[in-house]
Amino acid sequence: MSTNGLVRFIAVGIVLLLVMSVGAYLLFRPSTTTPPNVADINAIYQVVGEFGARLKNVVITTSDQDVITAVDFNLKQLVTDRLYQVFVQDKSRIPGRYVSSPWPDRIEIDSTQMLDSASYTVHGRLVLMTDDTVAHGGNAGEALITLTLKKVNGIWLIDDVVGGTQPKA
Known about the structure:
single chain, 169 residues, four-stranded antiparallel sheet, 5 helices
C-alpha cells in the first residue's frame, strides 16, 4: 500500500469514527424536553371537563345580551380574556347550544400535547345528547373540538377553541 493510499484509509477511518460518534451522541443524549407535570394534566382535564359541562347553558340562538350573560356566568372563569373577547364579539365561535335538542353535554379528551411549559393543545370530541339518549344510553352525535390552554397566573385557562360548533337549526 502506498503512502497516499494509507493516508486516504486513515482519513476515511477518522471521518467514519466522527460520524458514528455524532450519531451515537444524537441517539443516546438525554432528552431536553420536560415531561408533562401530572398536576398540570389533572388541572387541564378539570378545566376542559367543566367547560364541556357548562356549554349546554350557553344558548347561542338567544339575544346577544343573553349570550353574553350566559358566557359571563358559565364560561368566563374558564377562558382567557382574549378568548372571552372573541366569544363576545362573535357568538358563532362559541361551541354552545344552538337548538333545544341535541345539546352539548361534555368534552371527551382524546389526546393532550404539551406545546411548552405554559401551554397545551387538547384534542377531543364534544358529545351531544338528547332526552332519548339520556334515558336510553348512547349519544346524539359528536363534534371534533380542539382547545388550546395557557397557564395564566398559575391557573390553566382555555385560550382558543376550534370546532365543536353545531350546525344551526
